[in-house]
Amino acid sequence: MKKLEERVKTCRKCPLGELRTNAVPGSGSYESKIMFIGEGPGYWEDQKGLPFVGRAGKVLDELLESIGLTRDEVYITNIIKCRPPNNRDPTEEEIKTCSPYLDMQIDLLRPKIIVPLGRHSMSYILKKFGFEPEPISKIHGKTFEARTLFGKIVIMPIYHPAVALYRPQLREELERDFKKLRTLLDDLL
Ligand code: URA
Predict the structure, then answer these.
(1) Which ligand 1 atom minimizes the distance to the CA of 44?
(2) Minimal CA–CA distance to 71: which of 42, 34, 100?
(3) Structure confidence by residue, pLDDT tens digits, 65-93
(4) For a disulfide at 144, which of 69, 88, 140, 155, Cβ 3.0-4.6 Å?
(5) Does 52 sit in the ligand 1 pocket, CB within 6 Å?
(6) Is 46 in the pocket of ligand 1 (CB under 6 A)?
């Protein structure tokens, strides 16, 4: 995984590679059985080369802490590894070019649980494993079981932690989904 992360740091496969300050491969434990996947780096992530270190990251830290986890115990990454200008949504083309890195990270980590954060990540992961994406408001907190060469993966999409910043009423949903995640972890590990 370390080697792959190093490769990502020097990637120039798409124009975002010229615009970024730092690529953001991912961070956390290479032994983790749970993988959180966001959308793409924002301003602070681009500055520091680490995922979820801005305001949304603070929410993610709080949610992890609420179920007794720290970010060192989990693996956190994004679908695309470089910040799009002005934090715009990633394009289909960017996702297509960058997602092989995420696919390799999944193969290397072999997680038992994948938690897509937000609709872009949910859509990519569900399609990758043969499921039909649905609105995140409808399927957050639901589980999907995927069979892979290295065993079963449970996928549980949740809202992107940033929603708690602009729609505070959704924070409760996030907290509820994290509690479900704790139960899943306790059952699976
Ligand atoms: N939002 C994301 O989707 N990923 C990050 O790393 C930070 C904010």
Answers:
(1) 7
(2) 34
(3) 999 999 999 999 999 999 999 999 999 99
(4) 155
(5) yes
(6) no
pTM above 0.95, yes or no: yes
DSSP reduced 3-state for 21: coil
In this structure, the number of other CB atoms found within 10 A of the CB of residue 28 comes to 21
Residues for the chain: how many in total? 189
Q: Which residue, chain included where needed, has tokens 């120039």?
A: 12
Ligand 1 probe mutation, 52, 55, 63, 75, most atoms within 8 A of CB: 52
Query: Domains of the chain by range and CATH?
Result: 2-188 (3.40.470.10)
Residue 91 DSSP code: P
Indicate if the pLDDT at residue 12 is higher than 80.
yes
* Residue in 21, 36, 39, 163 to alter for ligand 1 test, most ligand atoms within 8 A of Cβ: 39
Q: What percent of the chain has pLDDT over 70?
A: 99
Q: Are 32 and 111 in contact (CB under 8 A)?
A: yes
